[in-house]
Structures
1.
Amino acid sequence: MLQSSRVHEGVWEGHWQGDLPALTVLHAGRPLPGLSVQALEEGWALRLPIPVALLSEGVQAFVIRSGPEVVGGFAIGAGAVLDEDLRAEVALLRAELELLKQVVRRLG
């Protein structure tokens, strides 16, 4: 289970507790390369450099999933000061909804 995460110096960092499944980080429905995993005494350290090309005006949502299951996510806001953090949450929900729609279409 994803215990904590942060973005530091352009790199997303997370801590996974327990058995590590195959993880994919998605932006706009596309997988991002470069996720690295390092074993710790308790869990796993996860790191993903965020491509500069993905940073632009507004909120960029990133979804972390294991197979079809969403196990986490994060958002980065850039440009004009955001009125509320709610925008970031809505962006994450939209990204998760897109993933769910893809799974439903495959099943149907």
Note: The chain has a mean pLDDT of 88.
2.
Amino acid sequence: MDIEQVMTYMVDHRAPRLPPGHLSEQLMALSWILEDEGRGIFDVAERWLATDDPFRAAVAMGLTEAVLVDTLDELVESAARITRCFPSMAVDVEAWVERSRSSFEGVARSLPRGEGQGLSTGDAHGAS
């Protein structure tokens, strides 16, 4: 069994009304004890940003200590797609963008707020 199967099982068999953030917290804790330092979890979560399942997307965005995209452009594109697919998640998406923007060199202090229009690109650093 690989980590993607474990994560899928956790989502598919979660308790009723479990908020996605609670599962995100458990996955972050799990990332600290795995020999790959959570890389497998983060790889799956990166794919979940492009899923058609709002719960999986929310779990991925809730991984607060992970950088799941490589550039600011990818962050903006992912945020726009998630907001377009799941308009009710707009507030959570904006919080994810705000939290993630500090992972990009040279642009974190000057980025405008909003839907990502006018954002310049930068490279990610941090969690890998």
Note: The CA atoms of residues 53 and 126 lie 27 Å apart.
